[in-house]
């Protein structure tokens, strides 16, 4: 019995998550810094 050949991944659209994953070491510290700045700004403003 012959099996159908596996489809190559070249014809499938690129996943959005897979395109973002290599940028995580850059995006996460920047997002964390912005979040900490906003929280500090709110704390100073409310004090």
What features would you describe in this structure?
The protein has helices at 16-20, 24-46. It is rod-shaped and about 75 Å long. With 47 residues, the chain is an all-alpha fold.
Features:
transmembrane helix; transmembrane; 47 residues; membrane
Content of β-strand = under 5%
Series of H and E elements:
HH
What summary fits the major beta sheet? none
Terminal CA distance reads 75 Å
Report the uncertain regions.
none
How would you briefly describe this protein structure?
The protein is mainly alpha-helical.
List strands and helices in order, with pairings.
Elements: H1 16-20, H2 24-46
């Amino acid at each position: 019995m012959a099996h159908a050949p596996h489809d190559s991944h070249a014809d499938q659209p690129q996943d959005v998550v897979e395109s973002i994953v290599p940028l995580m070491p850059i995006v996460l510290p920047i997002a964390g810094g912005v979040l900490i700045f906003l929280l500090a700004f709110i704390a100073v403003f409310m004090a």
